[in-house]
Amino acid sequence: MFKKILIANRGEIALRVIRTCREMGIKTVAVYSTADKDSLHVKFADEAVCIGKPASIDSYLNIPHIMAAAEITNADAVHPGYGFLAENAKFSQICADHGIKFIGPTPEMINKMGDKITAKETMIKAGVPVVPGGQGLLESIEQTKELAKVVGYPVILKATAGGGGKGMRVVWEESEIEKAYTTAKIEAAASFKNDGIYMEKFVEEPRHIEIQVAGDQYGNVCHLSERDCSIQRRHQKLVEESPSPFMTPELRQKMGEAAIKAASAINYESVGTIEFLVDKHRNFYFMEMNTRIQVEHCVTEEVVSFDLIKEQIKIAMGERISGKNYEPQMHAIECRINAEDPYNDFRPSPGKITVLHTPGGHGVRVDSHVYAGYVIPPYYDSMIGKLITVAQTREEAIDTMYRALSEYVIEGVKTTIPFHLQLMKNEDFRKGNFTTKFLESFKMK
Ligand code: MV4
Q1: Complete domains list, the chain, with CATH
Q2: Is-above-0.90 flag for pTM?
Q3: Which of 12, 134, 249, 395 is 20 to 30 A distant from 382 in Cα terms?
């Protein structure tokens, strides 16, 4: 039904979407900033339109420029990828207003999950477990102190417009409330133009386990099992895997059911992710919903043998999903290869890739937009690719990952490859013995 899709993104995800469009016989339009004129997504698309200057605000976040590109190329639909405008309700609305299908959820769905207090209320009504805490906004320091006594220390203050970790404050005792309340509000106002904050019980040393879901336009929702994303640093995921080494069949059953309830509660259309915190007793709590395709979608694709981008496009075209759920048949791990120096606090390392050798062989997938001679611009995120391995068991997937990382040659910029090589040999990692705090104590040799 779609003849032409405009991809409102750059880098590896733009290429990822172009690849699936090719397989589906759908024409593609790339948009690019002047900094990306030599990018592969520009070369691989059927058409390409320059949408502005390097800064994201002037290009990949500039809605009028992107809409103009969609209109002059006569695109039927827009794929937003991840980041940039992927969870921008206004953009979803503007696409709809112009008769261009936004390949993702409606503005209403984005808004219901974008405001965290609203999302939590919706989840409570739907019977999805949430972290215990206060209901609604915190109105004063006094009220915050009273509520914290009821919830019990430690507590965490979060921005209702937040997500991804910005503007959070953990509070261990009453004497810290005043400062935490004030700084959380200031940070929320500065980051989101919304100073609303709320309180939750702080879950110590949790795992981050998320469930991939898909919903169609007719109310059918299914899940495609979990990804473990506990290996993070300052809220940046570095490694993801499926299945989670912490998962049990009973927990998957329960979390899958909860994720379906969560997506069904907003009549979710498209692919999406329900993020949960899981404590050491395997209690799980809804954290947030990501209403987009995620960076780490590939590990799910590998273990359930499923093209999630194809599914996302078909759902947007009005196709029905089967409604059955998917269990992992394999084990997949993804390492994010960033142009960052792991020996120097993961400092960004943009610049020219002088030498490139990409790994291959059995069980190896590389999703990347870079080539020898490519210059990584300093304006965007530092991810230069994803290395994914798949095998029958977790041990084999790790061993294949180590082998593939050893083959990967990237010269000219610093990368996270040395970090991943050390992680793959770490005993606790190999045992599946890790939480979101794991990297706080991980030291590079
Ligand atoms: C929490 C939490 C503990 N207790 N909420 C971080 C990102 C944002 N989505 C929510 N986050 C957390 N919320 C309660 N009630 C701990 C975190 C958290 C975290 C969560 C997932 C992965 C990595 C993390 C690192 C630090 C804190």
Answers
A1: 4-103 (3.40.50.20), 132-201 (3.30.1490.20), 207-440 (3.30.470.20)
A2: yes
A3: 395
